[in-house]
Amino acid sequence: MIDVVIVVCYVLATIAVGYIAGNKVKTMKDFAVANKTFPTAILVSTIFATWMGGDDLIGVSERIYSVGLLFLFIFCAQTISLFIHAYVIAPRLLQDFSNKISVGEIMGELYGKPGQVLSGIANMLFSIGYVAVQVSSIGYVCNLFFGIPHFYGTIIGSLVVIMYSSFGGIRSVVFTDLLQFGVLTVGIPLMASVALGKVGGLQNLIASLPATHLDISPSHESFGLYVIFFIVCAFPYFNPILIQRILMARSKEQASLSLAISGILYIPFYAVMAIIALSAVVLFPGIDPNNAFLNVLNYSLPPIVKGIAISGVLAVIMSTADSFLNVSAVSATRDVMGVLLPEKMNDKLELRLSRLVTLIFGFSSIYIATMFHSMIDFWLYFSNFWAPTVISPMILYMFGYRTNVKTYLYSLGLGLISIVVYRYSVPEDFNIVSQLVGTFVTLVSMFCFGVLNHKVSARFRRFIVSE
Prior knowledge:
The chain is mainly α. Helix content is 81%, strand content 0%. Helix 8 packs across helix 15 (305-340) and helix 12 (240-248) crosses helix 13 (252-283). It is globular, with a radius of gyration of 23 Å. The model has no long low-confidence stretch (mean pLDDT 85).
């Protein structure tokens, strides 16, 4: 009973913080980037809490439980991604686009209305799929620990996130992220500490593990697959929530510092996750690896600690769901409706529409979460549209190269086709890199077609002059 009280108190505190913070939202810029008013500590909290999702808790534990410490080092490659965002992407974006509020607006500067609308749609698909993954995770947590059916647990958790996200926008999201950061950085390490005590301490844990789980050198047969996982973790995806956090920063220095600190914090946090997963190997040998984290949480923790840990899990999930819900609403109103219906849009109407769209997308995520069996596959499928649409042109932009709109659209078409062909041509284990395939094909096509167009145009101009 005490665990339920702790979780309910956490949820009520989240709603209260979100409501109080959201009272200051008066304009669309407040709703999207909060007028760049946050100090570095708060930016670090919201980046860290948002980047770590519920699927990370389950996925990281599952891989380490199955394979061992090798995957700890692979997952820590996400620090590389955050460092690339910190010291390569953030300074360039804030140099050229500090007044923008979304990836779509940046793409609109580079590739006009088609670039902004397509990026907005890609952002919506990318984000709403990820929100569905998170709210479905809330449903499973409620079902496992409180006996609430998955469907109703999903609805309850979604309504909490929708409530404060739609009302207060990014201000509510950031201040609830701050609360959630505090809860998860207490709850998850506390859970690891108790699990480690259950197995007799660190030395006994190491002595009890199979040798394969301590071996960090990949086997020859799986070397290629592990390299792929490492690249996927380290690759800079221009994630819409990270771009939003960059645009929220007051300066290039603040953005870089916030992202770098967040990246460093992931290393000890993943180490904590490794302790939980490896403790599960000793405590629950032979179980479904997907249940490693939840088994430790459900069967190894005493009252109060369990309530705090469950709150930490919910904090991880909710902090990710609310951020993606916010960026998807901003994309829908600013990058799609704002471009297609500019004469009807003003700041007041845009703010109202963003709140309405947050509600619509939130309830849509509930439907998606209850209708599809594999949430990760659903999200990965729709995130394939994000990669060639946004990542390829943004990489070229980082190197100071851009093409015309027609070249972008033709190259995007080739990239999407390449993803479909690739996914149906390789074993399922390798589908995870289909996004990178689409990114590469689109990027190469944009570069080659751009160079070709430039040469043809130059020759045509010389021909006209000679005539």
